[in-house]
Every structure is written in structure tokens, then in C-alpha cells.
Amino acid sequence: LFVSTLIEWQFVLLGAGALSLVIGSLGALKQKRIKRFFAYSSIVHVGFLLIALGIGDHNFISATVLYDAPQSMFITNSLISALLYLFVYVITVLLMFLVLMNLAFKKTGKPPVYFTDLQGLLIRSSSKKGGLFIVAVGLVVLLLSMAGIPPFFGFFTKFYILSVLVKYKFNFLICLVIVVTVIGAFYYLRLLKIFF
Q: What element of type H or E holds 173?
């Protein structure tokens, strides 16, 4: 009874994670509003977390049923990947909003609603002297990290989750994670184009 319940929860977590990846990616592609874009982006990131936690349940089942000590190591790996992803994501999003609001308030005096409100923001910020250039560079680094482009932290967190998926041969999820990461890189790089 206990093992069958854990297996059901594993499929629920992995299924919810896969749906979150698809819905969030497709929703973020069409967004022109900043808050909605980051809401859909958050759905994608929650999908990554659910997948990491779902793999942890799979490993826990294996360790419980088979009493295989090496299998329990992967519980730790999947939980570490989920916690690392969560930590990096929270820090990145908080810094992203802080930087965007700081730059936007300096430009217009009111919070931006659409991405077009931020058009050319980095060029105008970098042409001014002082700390705005550093803030603009920080925004570029944060966007590249959220896109999962190496050598930034976002890449390594996604890579760590992907490596756990490869270890357990979740082939469908591996393909889905790669496709979603490419789509995510597209819409984050599109933001950089708007900001420049």
C-alpha cells in the first residue's frame, strides 16, 4: 500500500511538472505584459522543481523496496537539485524585479506594464555615467542566467536536474526539458533585444 501510494505521487509530480513546462513555455511566448510574462515563466520554473521532486520519489521507492543503499544517494541528488534550483531561481527573480523597477522608475517615474515601456532601456542606461551601466549589465547577466545559458548559475541548475533525469533514463522528460529550455532561451533573449 505504501509503495503504490509513492508510485502514484511520483507520476503526479512528474506529470504536473511536464504540464507546467509546456503550459508555461507556450504562455510566455505570447506575452507582452511584464507581470504575465514572469508569471508564465514562474510556471515553467515550478515545472522544473516538480520534476526534480518527482525523481526523488522514484529514488525513494527504489531504496525502500530494494533496500539498495546506492539508490538512496539519488534521493539526495534530486532534492539537492530541486533546492539548488529553487535557491538560484528565487535570488535571480528578486534581483530581476529589483533591477527592472529601478531602471524603469528612473526612466518614467512609474512602474512599467508592457515590455515596450522598457524598449531601449539598456542603451539609455549604459550611456549615462554612474551606477546605471552596472545595473544594466546586471540585468543582462540575470536574463542570461534565467535563460539557462552557460556559464551562469541558471545553466548549472537546469543541467543538474537534467543529469538526474539522464541517470534514471526518463527519455521523454529529457527531450521535453531540452525543448522547453530552448524555448525559454528564445523568449529571454527576445527580452534582451527589446531592452537594447
A: helix 171-195
